[in-house]
Design brief:
With 257 residues, this protein is α/β, with parallel strands linked by helices. The chain is 38% helix and 22% strand.
């Protein structure tokens, strides 16, 4: 266990209950076991790791979904562990809070960048390095969103490690000054640790609440409404994008001259 490869090759199965050879070339990431259950039901596939920190499911076409938990440290962990199987592409299906008034619940956000407010990514790169997705992966995902007929926006999201901030007036003032579209807890970390591990990565975020006002803060009731209305199409876009990009999309990696 002296090298990173030896560690991640041991820990990825330990965290997920899934052998290395059962991970697909393309990966969907999520924070929610409900996403994994819906994916499994759609393909009549087995969920692994029910007794582990992370659950996985792989369909017959070799697409894998992983519930890695909540927060940027967990996002960093899974993106490090995935270096053991070197997937060709990873798409994070997350939820976010809309910051701008024009960012409506049920809309999708395809982030052009993420502000690194979480701190976790500072262990990987200096703060001057921007958190960016892989362009060609996002380009293909955008085509799938358009085909689905759903609304989406592009722009910058703010990633924070802080879970309870909705009461903090000064923090909300800061978010307005940054002119971000939305806030979440994982996107910047997925982008940065993906960059560190040479993994093509992206994020498709579902606006699930509007936390800048007291009545817009997410509750169990409101989250259930969002899940019932939009989660299936969220998963569907992710499945189509990551199932088809290998055959229909542009080569994600740039050519070397």
């Amino acid at each position: 266990m002296e090298t990173k490869a030896s560690i991640v090759n041991n820990w990825l199965p330990r965290y997920t209950g899934t052998p290395l050879e059962e991970f697909g070339d393309y990966i969907l990431l999520t924070n929610f076991d409900d996403y994994v259950r819906r994916f499994a039901n759609r393909f009549n596939a087995q969920i692994r790791g029910l007794d582990r920190p992370m659950q996985t499911c792989t369909n017959q076409d070799g697409l894998t979904i992983i519930n890695f938990g909540i927060g940027s440290p967990n996002a960093a962990t899974i993106m490090d562990l995935l270096s053991g199987v070197q997937p060709k592409g990873v798409l994070f299906l997350g939820k976010c809070g809309g910051i701008k008034r024009s960012t409506e619940i049920g809309h999708f956000i395809l982030p052009t960048a993420a502000i690194r407010g979480e701190g976790t990514s500072d262990d990987y790169f200096p703060p001057q390095v921007p958190a960016l997705p892989s362009f060609k992966l996002h380009k293909f995902v955008s085509e799938k969103i358009v085909e689905s007929g759903m609304e989406y926006r592009t722009g910058v999201v703010y990633t924070t490690n802080r879970r309870v901030w909705e009461h903090d007036i000064s923090f909300k003032r800061k978010l307005r000054q940054l002119r971000v579209l939305a806030i979440d807890m994982e996107t910047a970390t997925v982008f940065m640790v993906g960059l560190m591990n040479n993994i093509a990565r992206g994020a498709l975020l579902l606006v699930s609440d509007k936390p800048m006002t007291p009545e817009g803060v997410k509750t169990e009731k409101s989250d259930k409404i969002i899940s019932d209305s939009f989660v299936d199409i969220h998963i569907d876009i992710g499945i189509k994008a990551m199932s088809e990009i290998g055959s229909k999309g542009e080569q994600i990696k740039h050519f070397h001259f």
